[in-house]
Amino acid sequence: MTSALTGSPLGIRQGPSVVKTNKLIAGLAGAALLLAGAPAFAQHLTIGSRAEITMDPHYQWLASNISYYRQIYGSLTVLGPNAQAEPMLADFRKVDDLNWEFKLKPGVKFQNGKPVTADDVVASLNRAKTLANAAASYAGALQTVSGIKAVDPQTVVITTERPNGNIPQQLTQIAIIPKEIADSATRDDFTSAKAAIGAGPYKVVRYRPGDRLELARFDDFAGPKPHWATVTYRFIADDAARVAALLGGDVDLIDYVPPADLARLQDDKRLAIHTRASDRVMYLIPDTSSDKSPFVADLDGKPLDKNPLKDVRVRKALSLALDRDALVRSVMDGAAQPANQTVPPGFIGYFDTLPASKFDLNEAKQLLASAGYPKGFQLTIHCTNDRYVNDARMCQAVGQMLSRLGLKMNVVTQPKSVFFTQMTNHSGDRGSLLLLAWGSAWTGDASGILNQTLHSYDKAKGMGTWNLGHYSNAEIDKMVQEANVAIDRDKKGGFQGAALKAAMEDYAQIPLIILRVINASKREVAFTPFADEATPATAARPADASAATPKK
Amino acid sequence: MKQSLFARIREFADSRVALAAGILLLLACAAALLASVISPQNPYDLSQLDIGSGRLPPGSRSGDGILHILGTDDQGRDVLSAIFYGLRVSLVVGVVSTLVAAVFGGIVGLWAAYRGGRVDAVLMRIVDVQLSFPAVLIALMLVAFLGNGLDKVIIAIVLVQWAYYARTVRAAALVEREREYVEAARCLNYSAPRIMLGHILPNCLAPLSVIATVQMAGAIAIEATLSFLGVGLPITEPSLGLLIANGYQFMLSNKYWLSVYPGLCLIALIGAINIVGDRLREMSNPREEG
Questions:
Q1: What ipTM does this complex have?
Q2: B52: in domain
Q3: Is 0.90 topped by the overall pTM?
Q4: Per the CB < 8 Å rule, is B252 touching A395?
Q5: Which structural domain range is residue B95 located in?
Q6: CB contact A383 to B (< 8 Å)
Q7: How many alpha carbons fall within 13 Å on the CB side of residue A124?
Q8: At what angle do helices B117-131 and B79-115 cross, to 10 degrees?
Q9: Min CA distance, A399 vs chain B (Å)?
């Protein structure tokens, strides 16, 4: 599965805002005392994490996994906090429109002491592309890649079938491991940590499934040396339990802070909040293709002879009936912003002049009546209940608002394993109205949303993999393809913006909100939050003296 | 020895605690039966909810003028109304699953005791295996397999609980089987079902009814647990367990009323059923008087 699970759009170039840094009436003496008083803290970091790691780095494409892999295995490039691709194990340059050269940095070593060579890179990329039975294949991250070649022990050339400026971004997703491991290791070898050898700044000490992952600093790492000598990730899936672990002092840093607890945590002088806009937009997908949609019926529950969601007036009515400000305020406790398109501002392809999404229940009712449904119809919305922040609550709130429009709404929330299995079944019944959130960090622009969620579904070409409503519009497809081959950045952005605008005006997707990334830590820990929701230990450091001073 | 109903109620009421529990139970039944009449809001009707009135503290009034005595939950659902409706779910689950499980388990127990030998051995080993797993674990697996919904939850609870009845009834029936009246019935060439149901079963009813009250409380607790874990009932039709689960996410931000009131209600309901069951057992067994 790709970006609905993985991504987040990069965008929003505003820096991280560390709430309550301005409480720093600093006393140097006090700071020194405090630092001296906590020596153990300075070397070890415990992170309470919602998502557990999948140890095999090419088995399941999830942003939460890549957050771990970038520390253990490393990759040719790595995403920065604003989702920009930066060199990690290799420097890169564009040779021509179709070829990219990656030159391994001098002295990069695996944790078993052997140097990283071009053969290791080729073997890793090939494994990512072809691993059998992968739960969510990384092949999607290597979209357009047609050739991977080692030209000398330090250099790999990657060839694409069409011009693709996103190659550095896409390679942030692929972990690099030694060739002999890539060729022969099984999933069990990774899970037992025997094969968990990479070139990242931390090596695996111990992995206990369902409980914790213990890491130790790899001192021969070629890049910047991380601050913490040892790091423990504790897997705490339950939101309240994770917050309680931070409050109780069991962990130093947590991810996915539930917005409902934000106010309480901000008031706690022992803690610091680290927040920024996410690259992820939450949106609804209507079934725009089926002649009879599986979860639409008339008010008595009998099937309708046609699919009302194929009518753009009905889709517009759904959008008009949604009070996004109320969703932000009441469901997300303010930790979000209303969205008018499925790419957040700051990304290439974001359409600046698209008007804000409007809330007008009367107009929505009139539209519904003019489409031939003055009394509404029955509709089921399907959502996950363990994938996105507050997904189940958002689902109910959307159900509420649409039932005010006059629809008879059923709300179904499912664990992500069940939901994604049903909804990505492109040949069977999926759903009539789905809630999803898409992030674009892994592409850095609108190309993820356009190619994977709006372009007509085409299995052979790997297009529309996440187009779960099977929306299909020849004009938009044409614009998307033009954007894909455009080389000039502005021109590409222009095509992407036009395609996105056309899709939004056709209500192919109904954007809801742009999420926020919220991390919380003990006051003594500083952290730079990531747009793609990663929580690497490498981004944490001791807070500077002034911030660590207790408020008088 | 037959007593008048009135005399039996008087005897029941000799225990003040049991009397209080009995009244509580009757109130809960009344609230559940009349939920749609006495609730200020239909908490299962999405169009009556307003997310803007979410998480109001107890005693607040929302935009449409409803007084929320116990506050509202995160979706703007009136907690008091949700408790009434939730009680209905709990009692339906408790009563229906208890009846079905008692009938099914009772028949299996009778059959095993009456036949004896290999039938008995096979049936009781199945019961043993089932009893060796925690009830909630089995119910969880069954619901994961069957899917969500009230009917599925009831089926899962029946499949978990029948074994207790089978065990109990078999034990009682084994004793009865050796009595002379069964011998006599056999001599008259009565059919096996007639002897089992017409003669042995009535004498096993006392232990059956005792275990039924305990299991009813257990069934309600299992439903609440399943809903708390998110695998029981649909999220828009919360039972008490689901209300507790939803509200518990807000405990740390001091929105206690979302969880605490449904929780107290669940404790009171299960406690009352257990106390009433205990008292009924005492009354049916003169040796425990005193």
A1: 0.84
A2: no
A3: no
A4: no
A5: 2-41+70-288
A6: no
A7: 24
A8: 150
A9: 7
